[in-house]
Design brief:
The complex is a heterodimer.
Chain A: H1 8-16, E1 22-26, H2 32-41, E2 44-49, H3 52-60, E3 65-67, H4 70-73, E4 82-88, H5 97-107, E5 108-116, H6 121-130, H7 154-163, E6 167-175, E7 181-183, H8 188-191, E8 194-200
Parallel strand pairs in A: 1-2, 1-4, 2-3, 4-5
Antiparallel strand pairs in A: 5-8, 6-7, 6-8
Chain B: E1 16-20, E2 27-28, E3 34-35, E4 38-45, E5 55-59, E6 86-87, E7 92-93, E8 98-102, E9 117-118, E10 123-124, H1 134-147, E11 153-159, H2 161-172, E12 177-183, H3 191-205, H4 222-236, H5 239-245, H6 265-280, H7 283-295, H8 305-308, E13 315-321, H9 329-341, E14 346-351, H10 366-381
Parallel strand pairs in B: 5-8, 5-11, 6-7, 11-12, 12-13, 13-14
Antiparallel strand pairs in B: 1-4, 2-3, 4-8, 9-10
Helix pairs in contact in B: 1-2, 3-4, 3-7, 4-6
The chains are: A alpha/beta, B alpha/beta.
Amino acid sequence: MMAEGARIDHSVILDFIPAGTKVLDLGCGDGSLLVKLVRQKGVTGRGIEISEEGVRACIAKGLTVMQGDIDKGLRDYPDNSFDYVVLNQTLQAVKKPDVVLSEILRVGKKGIVGFPNFAYWKMRFYLFTYGRMPKTEFLPYEWYDTPNIHFCSILDFREYCAKNGVTIEKTVYLTADRGGRVLRGVRPNMFAENAVYLLSAGEKPR
Amino acid sequence: MPHRKDPGSVGLVQKQFYTFCEPPHEMELTSGAKLGPITLAYETYGRLNSDRSNAILILHALSGDSHAAGRYAEDDKHPGWWDNTIGPGKAFDTEKYFVICSNVVGGCQGSTGPASINPATGKEYGLSFPMITVHDMVRAQVRLVDHLGIDRLLAVTGGSMGGMQALRWAVSYPDRVIASIPIATTSKLSPQGIAFNEVGRVAIMADPNFHGGDYYGRPAPREGLALARMIGHITYLSDDSMHEKFGRKLRGKKAFGYNFNVDFEVESYLRYKGDTFVHRFDANSYLYITKAIDYFDLSLPDGSLVKTVEHVKAKFLIISFKSDWLYPPYQAREIVKALMVNGVDVTYCEIDSRYGHDAFLLDEGEMSKIITNFLANVAERNGIREAASS
């Protein structure tokens, strides 16, 4: 979960998703991404959100949303029932990221996963210099009250995909400085604050 | 005409009646039995628009009736049972929508039920009244909606047994419902729920005044009915809400009485609820309606909820309440799942209320806001016009 800020990640996801497709947004929060997908791309959008507050905000935006826990809820969805399943800034907050990731690629023909890179240099610097759990503008929580329980780095995520037969079709790295921009340089694991992946199930036998 | 003392009220209202299925055109019921003539008592609030597309049908629960909003007379002590959600500017906004509520068949507030006269015998039906199902209630409502000249309802909605009817409407009359809003309800009552209903029925039938249901013109089985109502009320509350509402407070005394009179506030509340209920409700109707609730199983005939909802066309808003242990959220989630698997547009919200099953009647604003937003969206997408103001 990320504090509200510049949402360049939303623009990236909007670019990934073709108009008129069927999209499920997991952990859709107040629906700020889903409403853009519905209005700007004309997708058939569905959201799942755990908080009543988020659900009410989605309903106020005219979205179709189900209150539920994505750690429990995805097994009821048939295979390939969505064109795209989006998990943006939520991967680090689920109890079983591996289960959720494999469910995303079962329920969706493609998956879009965006998460904060825990190997971002400011995080490393914070931990190295202060010897304390990093806090940033986007991850402002204390260690004891953070909803984020499973951090990973870009390298970790790539390794997960390789081991589990997940094909990375596209990657966009983001930095948050100057309101957020796409990072085109080298060493994203050091310099990207966020990463957004377009994934498909690949060839792995299922 | 808004009520002078309360601008959010629909004001003074009138009960109306519609009679149909005159013999030999009786209605065939789920059980195979036939019933006719049938009268439904109903009320309407707001105005039907010119293309008759802004109608919302409100469906009541076990002890409800057609009097959902407003007052019959200026000095009525209480307004209709869902007055907090129906009226100008409220969730079911009578400035925008034409709101209908009818008393179910089998009921006792003006619609045909066991206390009605059986034209074949000239006597009250009593237990010779045929068994009624939730589907039968809806079949009768379909006739009323036809009579009002409405092809498609903008929405059907209700809590508890009203929610069962809202589900049945969407499943069995998919072309006549744009949106369905089942609240605090289930696709089938739990064995625990059936158990409480059965205890209530046994209490009524064990009353010495019951006489096999043939008590009209004689003292009614009031003790039994009051006891059934007291049991019912326990199931509508929650442990939390009882703590908050009564605690262990004593009623009008500072020390225990050390006898079997009322000591605690909660005892007094239940007795009051039981005693007042018997003046407005018929014991036989209580038997018939609780049985209809028990029989309700949306997954029949195949036993698969996923299959029975496959032809649904309505957009859904399903609401449950976290503290409702009579119609617990897991049952609502089962309905959500079955609809979702079929690709139905279903929104689901679990409201964090402490009031148990009663929460749907005691909305503190959250439920109303959700419904207002949902309906606005449905109306907009379907190009529903508001009734022209006079």
